[in-house]
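Quick one, tokens below. Sequence please?
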């Protein structure tokens, strides 16, 4: 397991359905944003290609700490999807600890993701 302590703001992608997806090293991860642990700050993430390609890459976040539990992907990165989201203004930088259950269903305010620099929001 690789551990990144206090990894700071991460890049999130707003999915077509308005959900929150985490991007790490040109790969996209989903979480049901169901929080676990005594402090209610543990999230589990799986590669979005888990269902279609049976990719087993996994992450775990505890507050602002990132734990890579499996970094092996059986497919190429999601560079095109991430670039398309950037062009469409559907990427945002946000600290892991600022995620809420509301991000699962509603994504972010359009006001947060619009404007001259959608990546500037923390």
């Amino acid at each position: 397991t690789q551990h990144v302590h206090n990894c700071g703001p991460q890049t999130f992608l707003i999915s077509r359905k308005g959900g929150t997806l985490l991007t790490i090293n040109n790969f996209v991860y989903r979480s049901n944003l169901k929080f676990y642990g005594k402090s209610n700050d543990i999230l589990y993430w799986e590669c979005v290609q888990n269902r279609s390609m049976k990719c087993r890459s996994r992450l775990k976040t505890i507050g602002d700490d990132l734990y890579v539990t499996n970094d092996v992907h059986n497919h190429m990165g999601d560079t095109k999807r991430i670039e398309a989201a950037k062009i469409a203004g559907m990427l945002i930088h946000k600290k892991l600890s600022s995620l809420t259950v509301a991000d699962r269903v509603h994504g972010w305010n359009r006001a947060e993701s619009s404007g001259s620099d959608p990546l500037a929001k923390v």
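The beta strands are 2-4, 9-14, 20-24, 27-30, 42-47, 58-62, 65-70, 91-95. The two ends are 27 Å apart (CA to CA).
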